[in-house]
Amino acid sequence: MTDTRIADAPQPAALSWQSLAESGRLARALDRENATAPHLRKLRLTLEPKAEPHTLRLKMPCDCGSCIVKAQMKAGASCLVLVWNEEKQKCSLRLKELADAAPSEGPTVPAAGVAAAEADTQAAASTATAEAVGGAGGGDGAGGAGGGGGAEGGG
Length: 155
Known about the structure:
The protein is 19% helix and 22% strand. The protein has four helices and six strands. It has a three-stranded antiparallel sheet with strand order 1-2-5, with helices on both faces. A hairpin with a 7-residue loop joins β3 and β4 (67-73).
């Protein structure tokens, strides 16, 4: 007999990038971008830490508007740097809209907290995946965080 509980488990609701940007929890991680790799766009996401590991689903600010990044968050993690590779994805990020939605002053994240979150999300690099809503083809969703990675979204 096949156990279908995992397949039947409800997916967590996708977070809205607009509301996260307006609250100062989603912004471009310019300090992590590299001028020699302009096709790699990085977004920093700051959330309240949860006591247990959980799956994060985020609607991306992309051209098609239907790309969703899915990443595994470790227990206690509050910061994630998402990497969007514009050479591998079917659409580009709408960076102007993201910047326009951001508040003039966002919440400050202690440097130690960012470094710890980057170390946590580096370990999650191989488990982060991406999917597209509506049956469109997803990306190759490799990810991590911090200086070298994030969840690469597909769309």
